[in-house]
Amino acid sequence: MTTEALNLGLSDHDRMPSDDEQDLLKTPPASSTNGLPPDFDAGINTSAAWTESRDKGRSLSDEETDPNDPELDYLQVPGRPARALYSFEGKPEFREVWVSAGDEIEVIREEVGDGWSLVKLFIEGGVELGLLPRSYYTFTADFASSPSHDRGEASSSSITPRGSPRPDPQPIIPQHTGEWFPSFRRNLMGGKSLNRFSSFVTSGAEEWVLKGAPEDKIPPLAHHRLTSEPDEVVETTLSRFGVAEEDMHYVDEGPSWKIKLPPFRILVHSPAKRMSPLTGSYTVYSVTSLFQPPGSEEDPETESHRVTVQRRFSHFVALHAALSRRLPGIVLPPLPEKQYAGRFSDAFIEARRGDLERYIGRIVRHPVARYAEVLTFFLSCENDEWKREIPKHLNMPPAGPSFYAHVFHPAYNLDTEELADVANRFANHTRAVGKGVQGLRNIFSQVRQARVEMSGAERLLSYSLLALITSKPLATVSTTTLEEEDEIQPIMDKGKGTMNTDGAWCWRDGCTDCLKLTKSMQKTADTLRSVGDMYDDHARRTQLITHEALKGVSHPYTTYAPVIDTHVSTVTRYHESLASSSEAHEEISARCETVLNTTMAEMETYHYQKIEDFETLTKEHLDGEIQLYEQILSKLKSARGNFDEPWYGSLAQTPRQPSIFERELENPRLINPPLTQPTPHVFDSAPMRPVSVAIQEGVGLLLNAPRSSVFGKFW
To answer: In 76-142, which ranges are continuous DSSP H helix?
Structure first.
């Protein structure tokens, strides 16, 4: 792929897998009779178990059934009978089953990680295989004896309790984004996944450090302290082995990633509902890439090259899976949640649109991920071509050690004395940032709510001022005192004298002074009402954008935990190899330097992105506040000008016209609709889907829960 094609967001076709690779991709999960030892257990944290079983998984496909899918093998495995205790609404995209209380199921694996089980559910027309929380069911075999099986000794070779049918052991494929199990429910697991192996193992870094890259796939180059600019011989050799330009990554001094492709912008917009006879209704989003012509980055008026395609959420899922497999050493932002509320509600569609735009925006910000072939393919091809070609990207084997074999860095680019300390300081810093951002998000929610309450207070002040000059009662203000005065001093004609014939706040007809005063006070009341509306709109639109953007900088430690783990593990191997003078350990040291250059380049990427993010967030917040208060100041100055001559004198020339808000005095608009909250970050510890706040408030009223607002007593 040429640089010009990358700049235009275009993509060439990659080579098709060879016959051997296709056979490997179709290989079903191994059992005790086809490759793995009978006592293999995915829970054993050994690199050998991982590396032998890693490539036997099945990559995520796009809603199509493959006859060679290993899931079909699991469907044939008998399981322990069980019964669902509670109803569970599983997410199909995360391979979770949907069960009702009392449904009969079969448990294939009781424990596949973090409290989840692999189960079969018998439904009308077939069998469904998926994940179910362990606490949501109970075994029915525990309540009856089974004379056909030996009950003498407990099983030690299987997690299946005694007395249950014991099938041949089946390996559980460790969780990795894009493998047979898709990305797990990180919101419930606090960022955890089913993978029991460290990222040092799953990314292929350990295999690269210990063994290097496979010679049949990677050219036999001595990867010891290569410069960031490989010579012509190296480039020719890589090209002969099918290594494309977008698969070669360079680290500069720092260490930091070398910029191969200039940044560009991505917009996700114009959602539209579509109908499919097979999958039903779905939503598509327009994805527009804006590329600045070379040399015009400093001129904002230069017209950008635009490439617009239409994508649905499942396409983003496939993109994330493919990127995770091809760039294991790169930190990718977490994919947004599949569903927040009603699938086709305006609030949900807008929330998903914003989340997808922030997600793809952070992808293209990364100096390495932005030139990945599958990304340029995602941003440029038409729908039919995408559906036809994406299985090829998903079926490609994980890059593993070959990713690090394609990383080139300057010689002696590391300070060996600071390697371990850097990881410790980076981990502590990202933890502190995450904690601080969580607190900021909570406070920002309260600030937005205070703006809404200030809006209600300004409206109440406006209504009270109108009630004063018109002598009309305000529904929310108690009139007990006035009623007592009426009893003490009866009035023969109760309505007479409150206003004169010109609508002035006076008992004298023709009083020009009261007419000027009344009209000026009325304009002040209308201005206060407008100020209240400004506060409300600011909280619902401007501040909501900032509140949503704060998700992008939250949980950095959880996001970068794989990099930290890989770095720490590599540093240990690096110091062990430096302590030995053998030639083999010298090669291991060189390969460790490649991994460490990668991890430190990722830390540097976070460093400059953090500066950019918080600078942008702070400036946008200040700009929004300045704009709000400038508008309020302009309104207040205009209201104050009504009391200055010559305008004040001209107000006596015509009778007063009623305010458009007088009719609301009997039913004032003080209670605003529930304030829209941002959708939760996928790593939030206890996220709540946006349900109606009105329902929560209704429950609070039933329980007589007091309002915490300082303005609560007014309404």
So the answer is: none
Side by side, the strands of the sheet bearing 305-312 are 265-276, 280-291, 305-312
Q: How many CB atoms lie within 10 A of CB 34?
A: 10
Q: Which tokens sit at 31? A: 């059992």
pLDDT digits (tens, 9 = 90+) for 306-333: 999 999 999 999 999 999 999 999 999 9
Q: What is the dihedral of CA 16, 19, 22, 24, to 10 degrees?
A: -140
Could you tell me which residues come within 8 angstroms of residue 156 by beta carbon, excluding any fewer than 6 positions away?
A: none
Domain ranges of the chain: 11-151+164-189, 256-438+565-617, 446-550+624-714
What letter does residue 635 receive in the DSSP assignment? H
CA–CA distance from 390 to each of 27, 82, 685 (Å)?
20, 38, 33
Q: Could you tell me where the DSSP H helices lie in 160-312? A: 186-189, 199-202, 205-211, 232-240
Q: Are 190 and 683 in contact (CB under 8 A)?
A: yes
Q: How many CB atoms lie within 10 A of CB 295?
A: 8
Q: Rounded CA gap, 438 and 546, in Å?
A: 14
CA gap 267, 270 in Å, rounded: 10
User: What's the burial of 6, exposed, middle or buried (CB within 10 Å: 0-12/13-18/19+)?
Assistant: buried
Q: Given 3.30.300.30, 1.10.287.500, 1.10.3810.10, 3.30.1520.10, which CATH number is that of 256-438+565-617? A: 3.30.1520.10
Both structure tokens of 101: 């209380």
- Burial level of 238, CB count in 10 A (0-12/13-18/19+)? buried
Nearest to 423 by CA among 254, 553, 612, 560: 560
pTM: 0.68
The two three-digit tokens of residue 644, written as one number: 């200055």
> According to the model, what pLDDT value does residue 643 have?
95
In sequence order, what DSSP letters do the residues of 410-447 get, joined into one string? -TT---TTTHHHHHHHHHHHHHHHHHHHHHHHHHHHHH
Query: Which residue type sits at 711?
Result: F
Integer CA distances (angstroms), 346 to 269, 310, 316, 349, 540, in order: 13, 19, 20, 5, 15
pLDDT of 575-632, one tens digit each? 998 888 777 788 899 899 999 999 999 999 999 999 999 999 999 999 999 999 999 9
Give the C-alpha separation, 664 to 656, whole Å: 18
CATH fold match for the domains 11-151+164-189 and 256-438+565-617:
no
What's at 373, amino acid-wise? E
Q: Is the dihedral of CA 545, 693, 135, 343 positive or negative?
A: negative
Q: Torsions phi, psi of 133, nearest 5? A: -60, 140
What's the CA gap between 450 and 465, in Å, rounded? 22
Phi and psi (nearest 5°) for 63?
65, 20
Q: Are 653 and 160 in contact (CB under 8 A)?
A: no
Coil, helix or strand at residue 599: helix
pLDDT number for residue 88: 83
Transcribe 295-346 into DSSP letters: T-TT-TTSPPEEEEEEEEHHHHHHHHHHHHHH-TTSPPPPPPPS-SS-TT-H
The pair of structure tokens assigned to 564 is 């930290």
**DSSP one-letter string for 513-550:** HHHHHHHHHHHHHHHHHHHHHHHHHIIIIIHHHHHHHG
Burial 187-226 (b: 16+ CB within 10 A, else e): bbeebbbbbbbbbbbbbbbbbbbeebbeeeebbebebeeb
Query: With the C-alpha atoms ordered 159, 164, 166, 170, is the resulting torsion angle positive or negative?
Result: negative
Q: What is the topology classification, in CATH, of domain 11-151+164-189?
A: SH3 type barrels. (2.30.30)
